Amino acid sequence: MGQCYGKASSRAGDDHDDLGGVIAPPSPLPANGLPPPAPAPGTPRRRKSGSATPVHQHAAAATPGPAWPSPYPAGGTSPLPAGVSPSPARSTPRRFFKRPFPPPSPAKHIKATLAKRLGGGKPKEGTIPEEGAGAGGLAVADSAEAERPLDKTFGFGKNFGAKYELGKEVGRGHFGHTCSAVVKKGEHKGQTVAVKIIAKAKMTTAISIEDVRREVKILKALSGHNNLVKFYDACEDALNVYIVMELCEGGELLDRILARGGRYTEEDAKAIVVQILSVVAFCHLQGVVHRDLKPENFLFTTRDENAPMKLIDFGLSDFIRPDERLNDIVGSAYYVAPEVLHRSYSMEADIWSIGVITYILLCGSRPFWARTESGIFRSVLRADPNFDDSPWPSVSAEAKDFVKRFLNKDYRKRMTAVQALTHPWLRDEQRQIPLDILIFRLVKQYLRATPLKRLALKALSKALREDELLYLRLQFKLLEPRDGFVSLDNFRTALTRYLTDAMKESRVIEFLHALEPLAYRRMDFEEFCAAAISPYQLEALERWEEIAGTAFQHFEQEGNRVISVEELAQELNLAPTHYSIVQDWIRKSDGKLNFLGFTKFLHGAMAAYSDELANQLFHGDGVPGYFLYQYTMQAFAGFRFVETRKNMGSRGDSITNQPHCTSLTWTHDDNLRAKPKLGPD
Ligand SMILES: Nc1ncnc2c1ncn2[C@@H]1O[C@H](COP(=O)(O)OP(=O)(O)OP(=O)(O)O)[C@@H](O)[C@H]1O
Ligand SMILES: [Ca+2]
């Protein structure tokens, strides 16, 4: 669980300062020299508690000045913000403070609590209460909770003492400690296990109780993957909750990195990264986002050099539907993805964290570093990781490409865990790769796309080389095509092969309804490729211009046609007032799409709108004055855009009920308007 408060306890390995000099001893004081966020006296929350320094302020302070490169800077051009050192390859902070940070708003949980009280479901989206309202909301929740004693019963077994003999402490986290124990009876009798003990006294809100419940639920549901800690049992008594799991005796990945002086050889790093990707791909397919991936949360089963690694600590994890976005800011500062700070994220946030871990494995330094927490966030949002200094010149081009494709600030351009397993750096013909939930998302979009869009995607897929089709071939194979074709049944069978309780809870399985059109028709490999490619991901390839050029040639031959501005705008679902955006996309000579139009069209309506809105921003064309708030830039680049794009993504979705995209975009403005103007750190 990445939590909100400084961890004063020392942990084996923390005393080193040899991760390329990066990691220094922990301290009861945070690295930024400020006092840690003040918990309510004696009542630390497992997460999402209020804080003296809301994270979004940090994030907002990091927003750019007048420069407006793109809502999703893809790296490369963004200058370092004032006061942010370039990520040091060797020169490093003297102090590493393991301090996961609190979110700016406990919105989700307040809403969840309120909804529960009102008998509603579990809301995850929508407007985020303002800071003040958030605190108020919490107060409401808290005061209501104060009136009604919290129910701290979990329905777990009550006979912990009778079943287990507790041994010595093997680790400690913010909200509990972990001990070894011997099983006294039952099927695991005599076995030594690990028991994470979470004190009920520390569960001071309904939220924190819910968090423990979910941690157990996720562990229970997910057990089964080789690189995931095995869950055995959960017990409780008046004082504690006990999570009984497999004991990992080989220590944390962080300690091994430290023990190696901060660096792995590429070969050794690959062995680690493959395990991480494998377990994360499994979690994502199940609809679980971990949200706290870091070297401290990977444990080796034994001291053996080649012992397998296990992912632990699902205290921050959540269930997520394939097309859902979360907005609560949780995680650990060094590993947090930019879109988490923008408060609209999905599974790609875990991928970013794996990018940070891989970067550390390969060079021994953190990619995003600063002396203060707000500085780290600024760096995450704006700085480009250093790939120039030693040892990077001696690192293979494939490894560098691999890391860069994880640390892309635009989450849409990042590889998925499954794709990463087929990346040239890790490619291994013998390795089985799992089904990728991204395929389901992309095929859904394709099925709802217009014929012209499908033709454009087909042209794009035809521009890919055989080696670039490997991932798609493997995914197609996993669907077990019959006579070279797949239909809804293939998708259903493939998904249910991986079915666990987590998949039901996350409603991943319900996603199959979105593929209903495939009940009546079949797809061959060629069409599957068109359906399952992401123009955004391809755009991140070094070869993108070449691919786009070749794709356009195919499109000219097989798909391009005369199209009016109105028709093109309607294809993109643009509002009539925004038709002019696409004027430049059409060739004057023959009225067909030009190259610019083709690439923009591939990216969909948001490509049009991001230009349009940026234009408005610069020219003040109908844009409300409060755009001038520093905060707005951050929100503009993240939260609101993403909300909009999600709704623009598929025809027939809620966007069709909206007059146009921007009106949907502005729905969050009231929320933003009242935000305090943010000052420097
Ligand atoms: N299965 C296990 N086997 C051995 N040690 C374990 C196991 N699970 C947890 N630990 C140890 O206990 C520590 C704390 O566990 P965990 O990370 O789950 O707790 P936490 O309170 O959520 O931690 P934090 O929030 O500080 O990351 C781990 O860092 C590890 O050292
Ligand atoms: Ca942990």
How would you describe the overall organization of this protein?
- Residues 1-108 are annotated as: Disordered.
- GO terms for molecular function: ATP binding; protein serine/threonine kinase activity.
- Residues 25-42 have a biased composition (Pro residues).
- The chain is of the alpha+beta class and 681 residues long.
- The protein has helices spanning 55-61, 107-117, 131-147, 160-163, 206-222, 253-259, 266-285, 338-341, 348-363, 373-382, 397-406, 417-421, 437-448, 451-462, 470-478, 488-496, 501-505, 525-531, 535-539, 544-558, 565-571, 595-603, 605-619, 630-637, 639-648, 661-665, 669-673; strands spanning 164-172, 176-183, 192-199, 231-236, 240-246, 288-289, 298-300, 309-311, 318-319, 485-486, 523-524.
- It has 3 domains: 160-246, Phosphorylase Kinase, domain 1, CATH 3.30.200; 253-421, Transferase(Phosphotransferase), domain 1; 449-681, Recoverin, domain 1.
- Helices cover 38% and strands 8% of the residues.
- It is globular.
- Mean pLDDT is 73; it is low at 1-143 and 617-681.
- Bound molecules: adenosine-5'-triphosphate and calcium ion.
- Residues 1-3, 7, 170-176, 178, 194, 196, 229, 245-248, 252, 296-297, 299, 312-313, 315 line the site of adenosine-5'-triphosphate.
